[in-house]
Write a structure and sequence with these properties.
Blueprint: H1 8-21, H2 29-32, H3 46-61, E1 66-67, H4 70-89, H5 95-100, E2 104-108, E3 115-118, E4 122-126, H6 127-132, H7 136-151, H8 154-162, H9 167-180, H10 184-189, H11 195-221, H12 229-243, H13 251-255, H14 260-269, H15 282-294, H16 299-307, H17 319-335, H18 339-352, H19 357-373, H20 377-383, H21 390-401, H22 407-423, H23 428-440, H24 444-457, H25 461-475, H26 481-506
Parallel strand pairs: 2-4
Antiparallel strand pairs: 1-2, 3-4
């Protein structure tokens, strides 16, 4: 079997185990050079856990599986922020953790069904998970569960537990993560012999945490605006996957073992939930389809999805399913660089979502993406109205960059991007796009600074320092008042990031 690269979850687990146990000497060179150590034993402070998470997240930002899709990110972030607000209101999220942790979500292009919490308030979500959940409530239930792992300090407790384990345990976990990323059969083989006992001991410890995360996460659903039924719906999917003998596409089941007690606990909560059933929305179906397409399933699968609306059984599908199929077909055609086919399907999609504002918005954004991919930037620009959220901002900016005649509009969008990054300073994608805007306008000093900020947002402080110093060199050659102001900002930011780099280096 040909080995494939480690998934985001596999890399994260290996990195976290290596760091938590101080076993960096045995780690790959990439992890050894960039992950901090925490010392021996003892409780993990919030600050130390955040530093650990930052070290792991630097690895994940470099992973080819990492994807910053504005449409999917906005959708997941909307759910995530609602759950965070509910956790604050219910007292599940302490002020200390709220202030010190990152509370960031990363998307991985991996087609496997998985999500995982990381130290420091980071959450990883695979596109495979987004592609199988049947509703926003089911997705919210997974996010609520993972959030509760963080708020209940399960990660720090697990790290403390791991620090007391034997080298055999540590080796089993590392080898298991490596094997699971390549072959489920190999992962199962690791349970044979003397390793079975230590692995089982670890599972027994984590199962208590799983039940607690279920309980706390369930309590967040209704206050956050989600149907608690979504939790049960997700459990039903997990049970079904268990019954058909998980084939490796559900690694979530390996890291979150579904026990009879967990299922019973959740079922017992249903009668008292008092909430309406989880109902799939047109928007969710469209974005689940988007996740499936963007997970790079292969050309043959893309062609199947493209042809599905022409199939004999399409008209018999429920309306919501038809919308999802049409969305996948349009996006698949665009991914295959078949703009004419994508354009031919778009009117059917637009007709099907008339009267549904969220779904109509997604159809409009998709139409603009199709035109941008086809090289018709002016047409794409016309499809994206001014205002809106991050997807509109990013799309309009890319369209303007591809439309020389629309250069005056780029000045206005540069201001909007500056406002955005001022409110979201860790949005590396927005910083990188702002750098492109400034470069297109000949504002090279501003472009270099934006590039530096993009690196800093990904915790690559060495690269950020390099770009800030390049900005200093460029500023010495300038005489304009605007560049003088920008040079002052660069000097200040360079000192701050140099300090962060020294801390980062000292932790290695």
């Amino acid at each position: 079997m040909k080995n494939r690269p480690l998934s985001l979850a596999g890399r994260a687990l290996i990195a976290s185990v290596l760091v938590a146990t101080g076993s960096l000497a045995a780690a790959p060179a990439t992890a050894q050079s960039s992950l901090p150590t925490l010392g021996d034993g003892g409780d993990i402070t919030a600050s130390a856990e955040r530093r650990l998470g930052d070290g792991i997240i630097r690895q994940l930002y470099r992973d080819p599986d990492y994807i910053d899709d504005p449409v999917l990110m906005e959708y997941v972030q909307t759910l995530w922020q609602a759950l965070l607000a509910a956790a604050r209101e219910r007292g599940e999220l302490s002020p200390e953790l709220d202030e010190r942790f990152a509370w960031e979500v990363l998307l991985g292009r991996d087609r496997t069904v998985n999500a995982f919490a990381l130290p420091g308030g980071y959450l990883g979500v695979h596109l495979g998970l987004l592609g199988v959940v049947g509703s926003r409530d089911e997705l919210a239930s997974v996010l609520a569960h993972e959030l509760s792992h963080v708020t209940q300090r399960h990660i720090s407790r697990l790290i403390a537990q791991q620090n007391r384990q034997t080298p055999l345990m540590i080796g089993a976990m590392i080898l298991g993560a490596l094997a699971a990323s390549k072959s489920p059969d190999a992962a199962q083989a690791l349970s044979i012999g003397g390793q079975a006992l230590v692995v089982q001991n670890q599972l027994n410890f984590s199962r208590d945490m799983e039940r607690e995360a279920d309980r706390v996460g369930f309590g967040l659903m209704a206050p956050a605006g989600f149907a608690p039924q979504g939790f049960v719906g997700m459990f039903e999917k997990l049970q079904q996957a268990n019954r058909i003998n998980d084939n490796g596409s559900w690694p979530y089941l390996r890291s979150h073992p579904l026990t009879t007690q967990r299922v019973a606990d959740m079922q017992s909560r249903l009668p008292t939930a008092g909430a309406a059933p989880s109902v799939p929305t047109l928007e969710h179906g469209m974005l689940a389809a988007r996740a499936r397409v963007l997970s790079n399933p292969g050309v043959d699968v893309l062609r199947q999805w493209q042809a599905e609306p022409q199939g004999v059984g399409f008209s018999a599908l429920p309306a919501a399913r038809q919308v999802a199929v049409l969305y996948a077909a349009v996006l698949a055609a665009s991914q295959l660089r078949e703009a004419a086919a994508a354009r031919a399907l778009l009117p059917r999609l637009q007709q099907a979502v008339q009267g549904n504002a969220p779904a109509a918005r997604q159809a409009r954004l998709l139409a603009a993406e199709v035109e941008l991919a086809a090289g018709d930037a002016p047409r794409a620009l016309a499809l994206v109205p001014a205002g809106g959220g991050r997807p509109e901002l990013m799309l309009r900016t890319r369209a303007l960059l591809g439309s020389p005649a629309a250069a005056p509009g780029a000045v206005e969008l540069a201001g909007q991007l500056q406002t955005w990054v001022a409110l979201h300073p860790r949005d590396a994608g927005a910083w990188q796009l702002l750098a492109s805007v400034w470069q297109a306008q000949g504002q090279m000093l501003r472009a270099v600074r934006a590039e530096a900020e993009a690196h800093a947002a990904r915790y690559d402080y060495a690269a950020a320092v390099d770009r800030f110093r390049a900005g200093q060199d460029l500023a010495r050659q300038s005489r304009t008042a605007a560049d003088h102001v920008e040079a002052s900002i660069i000097d200040t930011r360079l000192r701050a990031v140099e300090s962060l780099l020294r801390e980062q280096t000292a932790e290695r």
